[in-house]
Amino acid sequence: MYLLTQDEKYFVRALSEMDRSCSCTWASPTFLWTAEMTVSVSIGLDWLWDKLSTSNQTRYQACIVNNGINLEIFNHYSEDFKGNTNRNIVGHGGYVIGALAAWEYNTTLSKYLLNTSLSLMRSATEMYGPEGSWWEGPVYWGYATMNAILVKKSLEMSFNNDMGFLANNSGFATTADFPLYVFRFISIVIDIFQATKIVLEMF
User: Fold this and answer.
1) Predicted local confidence at residue 203, as pLDDT
2) CB under 8 Å to 40, separation ≥6 — which residues?
3) Smallest Cα–Cα separation from 85: which of 123, 120, 118, 113?
4) Which residue among 80, 144, 163, 185 is least packed, with the fewest CB closer than 10 Å?
5) What is the dihedral of CA 106, 108, 113, 115, to 10 degrees?
């Protein structure tokens, strides 16, 4: 809201939320919560960067590294989000976006996590092939795709390209059609990965 309105009260509230986020642990049994907190504070830092003092810029970057993307956390959770599920994209996506946000604070760590995470995400992004469907069902398609788009856009804004993340992925290019096919004629969908029944109201 601050970027849209330039109203100081929204800037103050944003700082309050970021301070609150950095005052608690981001520990997560599956890293998913950790990844989401990393992305949230990273986006906040990016959006407010020009308004922040140098000390606050450094403080929030340190928060991202210490709570979200340090090597101890990466090594602890790495096995949990390898593979071809949404967890891979969400987990490694958190590392990519966090690494970009903390680039000036710890460039060596950020480069390592960026390159490693992008490499490990390929096994998951390949699952969009050949025509854009997602094997875990529509709910996890949404979770994976939302995070994939955040990663792609963050890379493009940082490097003017997505570093090969999805540029040549023909399946991802058509994945927006997937929910249309799934929801078009039915009102109940089974989410495959956890066998969850979703009842939809179609209008």
Assistant:
1) 37
2) 21
3) 123
4) 185
5) 140
Cβ-contact 60, 45 below 8 angstroms: yes
Q: Which tens digit of pLDDT belongs to each residue from 61-102?
A: 999 999 999 888 888 877 778 889 999 999 999 999 999 999
| Chain-centroid distance, C-alpha 55 | 26
CA pair distance 94, 11, nearest whole angstrom: 24
Q: How far apart are CA 200 and CA 30, in angstroms?
A: 29
Closest of 140, 154, 144 to residue 192, by C-alpha: 140
- 133 SS3 class: coil
In the chain, what is the greatest distance between 2 CA atoms, to the nearest angstrom? 55
**Is 70 exceeded by the pLDDT of residue 1?**
yes
What are the C-alpha distances in Å from 191 to residues 14, 69, 74, 155? 35, 31, 29, 30
- With b for 16 or more beta-carbon neighbours within 10 A and e for fewer, the 176-189 pattern comes to eebeeebeeeeeeb
Long-range contacts, 188-192 (Cβ 8 Å, 24+): 189/137, 189/138, 190/137, 191/136, 191/137, 191/138, 191/139, 191/140, 192/135, 192/136, 192/137
DSSP 4: H
CA quadruple 87, 33, 26, 50: dihedral, nearest 10: 100
